[in-house]
Amino acid sequence: MPEHAPLDPALFATVKMRRALAGRDIGGVYRLLKAAGVSQREIARRTGQSQSEVSEILAGRQVRDVRVLERIADGLDIPRELVGLAGAGSPFGEVVSEEDVKRRYATHLLAMGAIAAFGGPVRGIGELAVGLPVPAMPTELPSRVGTTDVATIRGYTDHLLTQARRYGGQAGAGHALAEWADQWLAADATNKTHRALLGELSELHTVAGYCCSDSGAVEAAYHHFGRGVELATDAGDGYRAANALRHAAMMIDRYEPNNALKLIQLGQLRLGDAPRDDPRVRELTAWLHVGSAFALANLDRADLSSVKDQARSDLARSRDGWEPPDAHAQADMDLITAMTLIHMGQLDTAEAAAVTAARVFRQGTDRREGVIADTTVAQLHVQTGEPDGLRLAATAIDGVAELRSAHARQLVVPLAAALEARPGGEARELAGHARRVAAA
């Protein structure tokens, strides 16, 4: 093998790289090296492999042959123990073959079965393997992407969104699923199918961004929203690019309303390139207007009359020609309208919209949205001194405690403040409970 300068050791010090090495995920190692600027040709030269072999590994072929693993480790200047080969830290000591690795997994499984059946190890039924490494995640990449594969990605996205709206959170699942699905772009496909795949992956990353933001993983949310915009742009899909920008704005508004407003405006510009006969365009236009109103209401200068006037105008325009596709979409619109009106000080109008949204959500499976609506109604009733305020607050706080939503917990903070401002021991006790749930 030709002499070459050693690779930077820092390349193999990241968490992602160490996980890939520990799991002997050589495809993952190669992808991380490519992302760091090491070309596929350079990887092939250093490891003594052909470029086609490297391509196959990148596409999902696993490397189990110990001699090949040794050659790859040595060629890339990776300490052998990092991939579980002979040396310090190796879980097996000297690994002799792929069949030996398989046997250890199989005998470990038999031993665990005996423990499950008899309450403890049984001599002659398997053998427990201490320090058995977790295998690399199977990539399961199709050799060629077709319409069925595109529909599969859509199904994953729909299920992820259902779980997120029911229970909140789902950042880990969303992040892992989106990163895995991106690998499908390496498979062969017709131009039409490739564009369709780009569009579905954009939707998946947008939902992953929603999940990460709801979990409080803000940096990951920015990454996925940005990837959603990028993929939609590559597909030439103005609607999906604008939709990703709209979701990004709505989820980050509570952190940076100035940037949220800019994202809304960019989404409005991008939506101008979408086909006007697309029935989704009118609905997304309404969402962009209500998103603009919400961002304006959250600005530091939201008390200025000009900002209030613009927010009111955007709220009115969001309802102009608004035809919700279903009752839950209408409830979503009512809820964000209510939250906007609260920031504008229009509590009576906000209360009516929030109550309507809460009533609809109770009839469906969008439990996260329902709890947020209940929290909004409770806050309004506590602030205005309604007799049922404390009862509604207790129900809302308990509902938030059962969710995996960091966003819902943040909304408990203003409810706690409203309870603290209300006289009486019961209100103070509820306020303390709310603070504990918010900090959980």
Strand-residue proportion: under 5%
Helix-strand category: mainly alpha
Shape: globular
Oligomerization state: single chain
Largest sheet: none
Number of helices: 20
C-alpha-based Rg, rounded: 27 Å
Give me the strand/helix succession. Answer: HHHHHHHHHHHHHHHHHHHH
Specify the helix fraction band: 55-70%
Distance between the termini: 56 Å
pLDDT under 50 segments (min length 5)? 87-96
Q: Can you lay out the helices and strands and say which pair or pack?
A:
Layout: H1 15-22, H2 26-35, H3 40-47, H4 51-58, H5 66-75, H6 98-118, H7 147-167, H8 171-181, H9 191-214, H10 218-235, H11 238-252, H12 257-271, H13 279-298, H14 305-318, H15 327-343, H16 347-361, H17 367-383, H18 389-401, H19 406-420, H20 425-439
Kindly describe this structure.
- With 440 residues, this protein is mostly helical.
- Among the domains are: 80 residues, 434 Repressor (Amino-terminal Domain); 31 residues; 95 residues.
- The chain has 20 helices and no strands.
- Helix 8 runs antiparallel to helix 9, helix 11 runs antiparallel to helix 12 and helix 15 packs antiparallel against helix 16.
- It is globular and about 75 Å long.
- The relative contact order is 0.05.
